[in-house]
Amino acid sequence: MVLASCSPAVLEGQDHSLMRSVEKTEKGTSEASVETLVQAEPLELTIVMKEHYLDGVVETTTKQETIWSMMDFWASFEGWRIENQELDRIVFQRQVEDISPLTKQHGYFGLNENGELAVFQGIPNEGKVMESFKPIPVKPLESKRIDVLKGGIKIKDSAHFEQVVHQYAGEKQM
């Protein structure tokens, strides 16, 4: 709508539950009104968040979200990438430059049945291999180092994780 008038015009906005109108008034009289229907209810979405960790673990969280402001909604997912978007569902993902909380608590390096470096949930003799970590062939090792891996090396943090992978598998594996 173009306002072309010689006399000064005042724009007034009114917000109704199902209608928004903009009125052009001159000296208190209403001359024109434009109405549009706006949905008053908030948007309900299913949000799926996938966090990819250095150790290969992917943590997935699903939640229902009520969205009143799209600006606020998008701001809350700064740093996330959209993997998939549907009418009532959005899947976000992001790379986390750390090891997963599961690996921090229960993760051990060890050798799997093929003699490859693997991450175990628990001590290698008692724990199970974490499927998310792709086993890495190890370079030829001294028997002392093989014994250390058979007993398990507790994973302390992401720096320790990367150090052990480099030490046992070599630079080209990372």
Automatic annotation (TrEMBL):
Sequence intervals crossing the membrane: none
Bypass of forespore C C-terminal domain mapped to chain residues: 97-168
Coiled coil: none
Pfam families: BofC_C, BOFC_N
Domain (Bypass-of-forespore C N-terminal): residue spans on this chain: 46-95
Name of this protein: Bypass-of-forespore protein C
Native source organism of the sequence: Halobacillus litoralis
